[in-house]
Amino acid sequence: MTVRVSRSFEFAVPKERIWEFISDPRKRVGAISVVETFDLHDNGTATWHVELPIPMIRSTIDVETEELVTDPPNRVKFAGRSKAFNVTGEHRITDTAEGCRMDNEFVVEGRLPGVERFFKRNFDAELDNLERALREDIDGSSQDSD
Questions:
Q1: SS3 of 139, please?
Q2: pTM summary value
Q3: Phi and psi for 41 in degrees, rounded to 5?
Q4: Which of 64, 67, 88, 124 stands 20 to 30 A from 44 (CA)?
Q5: What burial class does residue 81 get, using C-beta atoms within 10 Å of its C-beta: 0-12 exposed, 13-18 middle, 19+ buried?
Q6: How far apart are CA 11 and CA 33, in angstroms?
Q7: What's the CATH code, domain 2-141?
């Protein structure tokens, strides 16, 4: 079974400002609650150390991630692979009259029992985390410039 989720966020800032956040792998992965820690590698890939509260999984899962498409300041797409699941994520940023919109799509293909169910139940909360992190980042930078 594959879990697919999409959601859009609207921001009253130029898309370049959203790009600053979403193109930074530290900020992007920092918004994901199940990532306990991560390692960035010199070649641009990263290893996410993911902890899923699933009975079949009793240890941290290493997810090897890489960016597949980088089109500043419009789009970034990444993929992660592990023994438990594969994930792809894509963020597209477009101009609007008031600022910009970021369209997000994530696809998870579970490879162990319970993984899809976990993501199906928790994807909305993870997208809430991403939106909150983006808004906090925007608010923090606007306060810094005051």
A1: helix
A2: 0.89
A3: -105, 155
A4: 124
A5: middle
A6: 22
A7: 3.30.530.20
